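Hi U.,

Before I forget, here's the chain from the pilot set. I'm dumping it here mostly so it's searchable later in email.
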Amino acid sequence: MNNDKFLIGNVDNDKKPYVINIEKETLDNTNFRTTLWTGEKLQLTVMEIPVGGDIGLEVHNENDQFIRIEQGDGLCQMGPSEDNLSFEQKVSEDEAVFVPLGVWHNITNKGNVPLKLYTIYASPDHVPGTVHSTQEDAEDDPNE
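Structure:
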């Protein structure tokens, strides 16, 4: 498989000082996932989840995750295993989700517009510069 499909030029401002309007970057993003900045202990990505779509059920065993919703309405689910998502809460713009290391989680777009969010991983979770135009690209990426 050609990994170039998942990496685009200088999108990631890898380990350089960086200041952005995070709300504008998040709302302007039209990719499923775009990695904007990767440091030694922190990473920033922006995401657009289509109506009815989700971020994908996942667990991070090496990092905590912060998610802020900038646009739309969703359902956040978390739990100790992929078949036990015992925590459920509606989320909407201006709300933040904190996902502890080792907790399974997913956010599903339950609104009528694309769900726009940014996420901060501590430590980084994606290869610097990763861009996934669609969720299928993310699922097909051998680096994920």
